[in-house]
Predict the 3D structure of the following.
Amino acid sequence: MVISVRSAEQSADKTQRLCGCFAEDLYSATTRGRWNVSKHQLLGLTLHHLVGEAEVVTILHRHGHSTYTRVSELATALAKQVPQQDRHCQ
């Protein structure tokens, strides 16, 4: 409501997403990066997927986003889920 001058129910989807992103940045900043917020994890994972270079994720980490180690762990966990889901669907 502070950002959009409307209640969450009355705000547009884009406004709600932006407020959520802003809130995640505040969580991360106030905990000095101890909380792994989804925005930072997904940004690192997406850029690593698109570019395929650890250096890009390292540069992001210098600006307060995910570490390459965390992105690697997340990618591995997601890759392990695919075969398990395929077995359940058959």
Notes: Helices lie at 13-30, 38-51, 54-62, 68-89. The chain has two domains: 1-35, 36-90. The chain has a mean pLDDT of 76. Residues 68-89 form the longest helix (22 residues).
